[in-house]
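Schema walkthrough. Field components (list of strings):
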Amino acid sequence: MSLLEVENLRVHLPGASGPVTVVDGVDFAVEEGQVFGLAGESGSGKTMSALAVLGLLPRRAQVEGRIIYRGRDLVALREREMRSVRGREIAMIFQDPMTSLHPMLTVGRALSEHLRQHLKLSRADAQRRAVELLEEVRIPDPEGSLRSYPHHFSGGMRQRIAIAVALICNPSIVIADEPTTALDVTVQAGILGLLDRLRQENGLSVLLITHDLGVMSSIADRVSVMYAGRIVESGATAEMMQRPRHPYTEGLLSALPHPEAGDERPLVAIPGSPPAPTDPPPGCRFHPRCTYAVDSCRTQVPQLVEVDARRLACPVDPLAVKV
Amino acid sequence: MSTASEAIELPARYRRLPRVHPALRRPLAVTGAAILAIWVLVAIFAPLIAPYGPDVLGNSLSAAPSSAHIFGTDQLGRDVFSRVLYGARISLPISALLVLMSLTIGSTVGSLAGYFGGVVDGVIMRIVDLVFAFPAIILALVVTAVLGPSLQNAVLALVVVSWPTYARVVRGLVMSASQREYVQASRLLGASARQTLLRDILPNVIGPVVVLATLDFGNAILLLSGLSFLGLGAQPPTAEWGAMVSYGTQYFQDWWMSTFPGLAIFSSVLALNFLGDSLRDALDPHGSWTTRGGRR
Amino acid sequence: MSLLELQDVEVTYQRRGRAPVRAVAGASLTIGPGEIVGLVGESGCGKSTLARAAAGLLAPSSGRVLLHGQPIAALSRRARPAREVKLQMVFQDPYSSLNPRRRIGSQLADALRINKLMAPELQRARVIELLEQVGLPTDAIDSYPHQFSGGQRQRLAISRALAAQPEVLVLDEPLSALDASAQAQVANLLVNLCRELGIAMLLISHDLAIVRQIADRISVMYLGVVVESGPTEQLWTDPKHPYTEALIGAIPHADGLGVKPRALRGEVPDPAEPPAGCRFHPRCERAFGKCSAAVPDLISLDRDHAAACWLHDPEQAPQPSPLKDAAGDSH
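Field assembly_structure (string):
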């Protein structure tokens, strides 16, 4: 069984004129020691899905469906029970590392306070463990860093420290929401390497959320692509990137620069823009922008079905059309 | 299908009605606007509503509220209810004038400081600091004491103490707005600094200033009444709320003489504060209801 | 002849109570008519400062910016001379570069009105033409900026600049605030505008992969200086500076092969206290004695291709082996 299983997740947020469905029937599973990716553009519902897993959605949000973690349904948990899961079993890293670092506390204090509070360590043990954690995330001079404040560090180093904070309780899953988006590419590569090493050495599972398919391709084992609140395609990353089958996945890949390809590969833009969550089109939500759309796309919501070891929500299946 | 949707659709002229911002539909905002509207109507139609003239004597002296004089009479036998109604004709327009004058002077001076910067800014802001260094009411007292007590001089004194607030706010807004990228883009397109001030900067400054003026309107009513209360503003027999409260306090056991004009001040100031706070929420760009989508 | 030329531009920021920062420490760049030049570098390399100097938004502390061989004066309180209006800029954030309180039509007509390019009654037709040029519906003319998505706003910002009939557009990270599909739309729009209207562009970006798709030539900046410049494909396939090579190696590939991008060791140093010698040497895999001692000049290696690296100094380089050998190192 998977470590984390999300079944038919729906998230409704209050809107000016009635609730707005931002996540509409999403299924995915994170396996032990795997990096599972949720890809999609802004507003596709990927962050909302992750926040739902952690019970961090705004108070007035409504969540439906099941989120099974080690046999427990997180949706049904009370806030107090959720607190024993959040941070301990499932931790989170945000795009802006300052979200999880207090600007007025030294790194040493931030780490050891968490350690003493959550793991009931003695002062000396907490100190020792803090140094170990900083070594783990490859902060140069861990002892010296304990006395520094977050603003003394560069963006990349801060993200490493935020990862160290996330690792305090030795969680089995880390949810990383655009962890490298604010970083330079040369620094991003280091953070991706770190996440990959933690997965291999510590068996950490990662739920990686990013709009960047390049990042996804370099570390995710499996990936689901979201569009306007729904998953349109899921499968093994290599398969998906090399042979996208949903027109949206294909469009997204064609719109990206491909450094590995020759110079004669123009960017092919997807026409139009994503729908507003308040006013999604009927049928397949991508049909107004899809070059393959047929009549049924406009009225019938395509279901995710198994096709050749992946799941696809498109009755047209452009790959089949092309071949 | 089509007929059904047509039936639901409203005629175009209804749909075109400007939508009111949610912050202005809240009970507090509506209450504030309603109270203020009542007072404005009272001020306009006082002669029609008031049972007596403001200065008509000859009723029984110092009479407690009764059916003939619902707010009672003062010790000269004037009907307090009528005087409170007539008071709206003085307190509201004069406070409005006061706000308008402070706003005009303060905004002009503030935009000059924000726009020119450097020495001009330095000099103007030091003057502003100087005014702020005195307690407002004491400075106003000094000015009226020098000019002589009258309603006109009280207004002048209050303009002297209240323009710097506008100057400071407008200066800050002008300075930050002129750093915006759309202002820079406009400059690169060939607009002079003066052109961007009028087209791009001031329109983005007006909103917060209107909020400030609404909140300050209530403050102006209070200050004006305060000066009248101290005998430096409206002089007898003018039916001004502050002066009436002051007058009434001399006859402590005849509570109605000061209570009702006091309530008039209280309700109008409270209404303006409700309205000002709601306007501020409505104009707050962070809570903008019109923004579609959002940043990543 | 070059259309826009930056000659040894330096920009120094004075900081209260602290050492001044040379954000741009002597950068030269030329842009020919109808050419797209990419300026690439990571955060803190001074590329945005250079963009602002190139557009005339700030005055260089030394060096010159020339348009048609004539120096550009930085903005003062006065209106810009008509000649300089041919040099326009597009900003990174399409949410703050349009005035939220003015209708699109009015903002797009700014350049026409201010510079009296045409009679007022013709302006509306021209604005509609401008909207069509950037692929937006013409009824946008009566809308406000908040009614558009990020990609659409960036197109509005571009069309506002087009109204001035620019010869050169300076674009400061015009794509980085956009989603992938909007990014491709705007990138293609820029290339089309360049090819069809012959507008030269200086495209500033942190994203070498997308710049490669758009630019004819690329300059790479590191810590305030240009370390390499050359024709796009040449620079991409045969980078001469180790930093350029590191940048290329760090780009993740969306090809499903699971290849890990390569990180660059160390951190970008404080621009107020740049390392002696070559500014990149503390992070360079191939640094040798000379690198920490002397500043390498940007020397021409092959027609248009130039790099500032001691490895290419025939008398200094310890090993003449091509740079590619060092590429295998990972950490």
